[in-house]
Amino acid sequence: MRHILLLIIVIFFSLTTATGNTDLKKIESLIKEKKFDQAIKLVKNTKSIEEKYKKRSLTKIESSRLESLIKEKKFDQAIKLMKNTKYIEEKYKKRGFTTIESSRLESLMKEKKFDQAIKLMKNTKYIEEKYKKDGFTKIESSRLESLLKEKKFDEAIKVVKNTKYIEEEYKKDGFSKIVGLWLQNYLQEKKFDESEKLVKKSKYLDEGKKPEVYKQIVGLRLQNYLQEKKFDEAEKLVKKSKYLDEDDKKRILSQIEGLK
Fold first, then answer.
1. What sections of 33-113 are H helices per DSSP?
2. CA-CA distance, 111 to 80, in Å (whole number)?
3. Do 139 and 165 meet the contact criterion of CB atoms below 8 Å apart?
4. Model pTM?
5. CB–CB of 62/81 below 8 Å?
6. How crowded is residue 32: how many other Cβ atoms within 10 Å of its Cβ?
7. CA distance 121 to 105
8. Which of 70, 76, 133 is nearest to 107 (CA)?
9. From the CB of residue 53, how many other CB atoms can be counted at a distance below 10 Å?
10. pLDDT digits over 14-71, tens only?
């Protein structure tokens, strides 16, 4: 009799566990299918999940719904969900709102909607004021990076000039970086005249370093002439250049003569 009772208990426990596992699998399936309301209903109504674990399951469902909305860039719906849900504890909601707004900002920056990102940062109440300064700087840095990739150097200069979100002490480095990339782009495209004009006009390059930059431009122009076997142009360049000393000129002219 005792063995029969033990067997009945084991069978009952196995059936309960099996039913619980089935419901849990069904909940997981509903979450994957984004059928969140059905998943919540199942958790509420099932008897195979203990009450103490139902709260955790409901939180998981709402967190998955929230993650899905963020991935789909449905940020307003995500905010509304966070406000109204009773399945995420209040102490975690602040972090949730911040996550949503940070994701919205990242999305705007990826889409190069920098003005909208600035407006969002100004108006949002879900990002603490103490973090907003870094947020504005990040947006403007992303805008600059985008302009530089697109080789819009004039626009990049204007951004650094006019922005109030980059500290003055960093602006000088910003200007130098832009002009440096601008010059590099000209040289890669073999636009040597434009390179010299940029160096001459730029107030963002150290005057003491300009002669060395001019010398580098002359060297690259000379190298280009030699590669194209334009020896007469190369000789004229060397003779006229005020950025080469006389000893350098003699040595280079001798090398050109040897290549003819």
1. 36-45, 51-71, 75-84, 90-110
2. 23
3. yes
4. 0.78
5. yes
6. 10
7. 8
8. 70
9. 12
10. 334 444 568 788 989 999 999 999 999 999 998 888 887 889 999 999 999 999 999 9
